[in-house]
């Protein structure tokens, strides 16, 4: 397969640059993966679409204010985007500067945070922040919300709340699991009252989620690594749901990758560690029966995962419908609910 097989035309004006006033006011494109049929709904229609006995699995990662601006000792401007915390004072980061900083270079970030460049690890830099206060606390005070590059704007105070899910609990992500942005507590309560159970996994989304594939052939792409945790309670919930005839409904591609990583041995098992699982058409799913997801970038690994789940042609046809119907795209955009997953793609 070629990366070009997953491209579609998207007018710039359909990229949602800001969130809607209410989380659940987003539109929801409902897709029957078996037939390709589409329905235009509102996101709160999930109360009708989900059934008693279904299990909604969400990602409880919390986005940290991971972008910092500053200068090098030489005076040159620098932008730092954290990829991963290593300990209370060190991190792996992306650095944007006119000249790559060498080991031993000091950076002054946000006029209050001195940091020492320790070295490189692939495309990333290892920084040690020369402060006594833990880095997470400093980021909350000085950092900027790491909005995706395609929004083409600076973060605002609104983004502190809205580029965060209502179930965010565990700091570590530098990008939001955007399918979860559509839920509010009232909707979660209505689903619970209907008998839809909820389980939580953690996958700390990295900045690599926005990186384009750099190979012509899909199969040659190497995914970036992200940290995840799936505990024994989640595994038990999934097993119980399926035994009772319910559906495992993944809220976002990050949940799919977390569950499928934990099931790579053939059965879902507790897992804690990194994953570089790349899901594209031909992949055999083991744990997920339905998917809630936002609209993704052309040629992206996220779009390929959705195509693996529901079929390339049905998904691209649905995307063309969404463009014609003026859906809002990407992180602050509208969502899709895909069901049932193709039976031949299930173990």
TrEMBL record:
Pathway: tRNA modification; tRNA-queuosine biosynthesis
PANTHER family: S-ADENOSYLMETHIONINE:TRNA RIBOSYLTRANSFERASE-ISOMERASE
InterPro entries assigned: QueA, QueA_dom1, QueA_dom2, QueA_sf
Record family assignment: Belongs to the QueA family.
GO biological processes: tRNA queuosine(34) biosynthetic process
Substrates-to-products reaction catalysed: 7-aminomethyl-7-carbaguanosine(34) in tRNA + S-adenosyl-L-methionine = epoxyqueuosine(34) in tRNA + adenine + L-methionine + 2 H(+)
Record EC number: 2.4.99.17
Keywords tagged on the record: Cytoplasm, Isomerase, Queuosine biosynthesis, S-adenosyl-L-methionine, Transferase
GO cellular component, one term: cytoplasm
Top-level taxon of the source organism: Bacteria
Functional summary from the UniProt entry: Transfers and isomerizes the ribose moiety from AdoMet to the 7-aminomethyl group of 7-deazaguanine (preQ1-tRNA) to give epoxyqueuosine (oQ-tRNA).
GO molecular function, one term: S-adenosylmethionine:tRNA ribosyltransferase-isomerase activity
Localization annotation: Cytoplasm
UniProt name for this protein: S-adenosylmethionine:tRNA ribosyltransferase-isomerase
Annotated Pfam families: Queuosine_synth
Subunit annotation: Monomer.
Keyword hit for Cytoplasm: yes
